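ingest -> validate -> predict -> emit
validate: passed (alphabet ok, no gaps, 507 aa)
predict: started
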Amino acid sequence: MDERLDSFTPPLGPGFGPELLLQIPPRGGRRRAVEEALRSAIRDGRLRAGTRLPSSRELADQLGLARGTVAAAYEQLVAEGWLTSRSGSGTRVAAGASTPASTAPERPVPAAPRHDLRPGQADSSSFPRDSWGRAMRHVLREAPADAFARGDARGRLELRTTLAAYLGRVRGVRVDPSHVVVCSGFTQALTLLTEVFAELGTDRVAMENPAIGDHVRIVSSRLDVADIAVDADGMSCAELSASGAGVAVCTPAHQFPLGMSMAPARRADLLAWADEDLGWIVEDDYDGEFRYDRKPVGALQARRPSRVVYAGSASKSLGPAVRLGWIACPPPLLEPLVEAKRRAQPTSPLEQLALARLIDSGGYDRHLRTVRRSYRHRRDLLAEAVASRLPRAGARDRGGPARHPRTAVRPARRGGADGRPATRVGRRARARRLPARSPRPGTAAPVAGRRVRQPAGTRLPARDRRPGRPPERTRSRLTGRERPAPRHQAAQRSDRRMAHPMGPIRS
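emit:
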């Protein structure tokens, strides 16, 4: 006789509850087999405490048994304490009846630091929840049916079109939407480019020293890496030419971790190397949106779109939870890059459409303005604390367009010398100082910050009135009420006024 166990899977159809896979032997009592199968599933931890089981009718249909057989098995397990049954709640696994599938102790999770000073970490609390939520709801409501499929390996056309316009507006990138490839962050972009260069026959890649260790490991897994020194002007082009590398990976806008921008002369030398040696330049613009002390520096790709591969991501502007990046690819590399992206892990089409919506609606620019102010203030607080508390730390100001300490430090309230919060002095709170001038006969001396009231019916000459000064008031001879003198009246009209018993007539 065949003692093999038969596996039963629940059929699909309307009205079925939770699915349950039970292994019932082909021989023996049916009720006892159902009871033992349920006990085994609970004992092994496959059915955890509180798990809802199918109704007796549904499980009987799944197993091909009579409903009374399954109902009797349920009653027996309830009596033994394996299951609980309550009207309106169904049949569930009793608390304490199941055993965890693994008894290995969990590794303790380290406590979050009070002040996270790691460089390059975005503040997750500043994520634009409302704007991103509105964009995602719009996408789910208006997205076409093909947005829920795999789609083009380059990414959604909506995002590629938006990125081409946005990067051209804020970074000066010159790229057609058809040459934009959307990926899951810069890490995947560098992995794809490494694969492409290896397939094209490149055997050595030049990378800045120092650089991010993960990026070096990604490239070194397929190609030889040549470390190129970085000085005050950026990557050394002399060492680059002597290295024999066919690709250079650099950060022209903001070197990590030293923080300087590549000098204009060094940029020209780097482009000359690419033209003469037919080399490729991978421009890592990881935080080009953040700048505090200088005017924005345009992308290197704008000067040589045919030799520079521009790569960026939203991990620093929005946060690492949004796994979106982009590559502005030169035409010769487009086809192998798209093929490599097709074989790689796909990028969420819904997130692509949400980012396109966020940029087109202006929410992305508003978010960047907000976090720039926040990061600038936190950077200044950190620099001030280092200068005052660690005067011998040797901290130097590189003066770059952006600074690395975008930390999650809560800015403290700054107070005065007596410990009380300092008063915020704005443009309206400044006292207005009047120029020192001898009072004219018959007028009162001006007082700084106070309005000078003239006697009724008098008016200062035009040369004694300051622009922006509150208008003096005159008293009407007809009603006896004070009223402000009209601001548009010029002094040269005063000689054309005509006397009248009821008061002056305005010309």
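The chain is about 30% helix and 10% strand.
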